Amino acid sequence: MRSPAATSPLNLLLAVALLALVLRLIYINQISLAPFFDLRMGDARAYHRWALRITGGEWLGGDVFYQAPLYPYFLAAVYSLLGDGAAVVRYIQAVIGAGSCTLLAAAGIALFGRAGAIAGVLLAIYPPAIFMDGLLDKSTLVCFFTTALLYLLSAGHVKFREFVSGVVLGLLALTRENALLLALPVFAWFVIGGRPAVSVDSPPTHRRTWPAALAFLAGCALVLLPVGARNYAVGGEFLLTTSQFGPNFYIGNHAGATGLYDALVQGHGSAADERADAVRLAEEASGRTLSPSQVSSFWTARALDFIRTEPGAWLRLLARKLMLTFNAVEIADTESHEVYAEWSSLLRLLAPFSFGVVLCGAAFGACLSIKDWRRLWWLYAIAFTYTLSIVTFYLFSRYRFPLVPVLLLLTAGGVAAWGDRSARPMRPWAVAAAVLAGVVTYLPLENTRGERLVHYVNIGNTLLGNPQTWDQAAVFYDRALKESPLSPAAHFGLATLLRARKQTQDAIVHYQTAVEGWPDNADLRFDFAQALEEVGELESALRELNAIAGLRPADVPIQIMVGKLLLERSQPGEALKAFERALAIQPTNIEALVGSGDALVQLQRPDDAIAKFRAALAVEPRNTDAQTRLDRATAARK
Question: pTM for the whole thing?
């Protein structure tokens, strides 16, 4: 006969923690053999550099937060204690991920008895959860704070539960900003005095208590107000989290939006590019310098204008985003689940347990536990509110991941209710709901082959930064081209690699293919123009530059290169105009001042040329190019 201790809640929680940790350690060990294991790509690179600045003493920063700040500060703490190795971060996140599974199991036990621990078991073996815990990304912290919040709302015995819940939600909002919207259902839960049932079969207690709700708000304020004060101190604007609402809202809501991420500028996908592009485009359109809040307001207004003028298109877009949110396909950001699965037999083994299965289980559980809706309504409210926060913007699988713990709790509720006699009439409905969810979730909306393509290109681009890994970079660009032979990103990367290897003529072929697919990518066309100039095709280079000037009329480097090419073609008058356009934007630009001086020399205007060279030296007294030209121009005048 099994002893009570063998199935005690504590033993169940320990078993869940051990299972989750072992699986994550196995996974990290498997992917450690991948050539990209130590690479930081996309947001991971931005967070890494941010963390290094923090450890270097820039703990306060110098501008309003654009990205959620908690993860880089977490990384900075890890770096200070254990070093900045990628493996260290992945292993620590494996431990945190195991903690998330344990918290979810504890929440399930509090809500449904020991059978509720199945929620933690399912999270422990859920492949995307294992994958995300191994990423150099904030998803691990997002899941941890989400499961911690669910546990606090489920368990009635935690001291200062309302206040701690507020603290946890504040921390969650500093890792995933849209989670702040969850304050609404949680506040409502505390306002009505909702308390978990004393036992699974007893109803929840209700004691109207505004103090409890206010304690929750106080917890949120304790975390978020200092961030708002910090933003005000360094940037002059009081923002509780970040200033990226407007650009993200516009990306998800504009004419031509797909519900997925589309960069503001073609070919730009990094956080640094996105912020710079958002500011530049907003200021060009406004004709003035804008603060972070004003930039956000600019993009918000553009999105609202689309919603107001094209309500039908927006509603169709909203429906598509809702379908994508509950689709079985994992839509990758920078790194793809499928590429990591190429290096992990564990991910391949667990692959059938997809988001589609999770959704079917939640639909099944929701029907079987419907009789308990009075004590579970807050779960539905959290799921609904978080779904709303997703479809308001755009979708990546990591953005919808916080929904998974909630859905697994509903699944656990169904497992717990299966043997309940009162739930038997609902069994056919539960099966029907699961089948319907399966039909919806497995609709063919997206093709994940494109996600592998993006990951291959990102690996290649990152390896491109080190000459010792150029051969590996070429391998991943080739893989990307096998996925999509006309991929502009892959051809652009390969062209950059060939040009770095001094194989410029070969690179030009790939630049041409990339430009055909990305005609509005100014960075690509600028590099193409430089390559054409290197092989002596000045006319073609100028044609590319003129095309770019139309895309970015306020881009100083473009105007400077136009001027230099015109000088090479002995067209000093046109060259001077290009340099003057650059100086109108950036009056102290050394290259433009020196270039305009060179053009004036060719135009036989030595006095004006000398003035330009002197202006350059006034900006940078030790500039040898300006000094040499000044000496020559002065000697020639004599």
Answer: 0.89
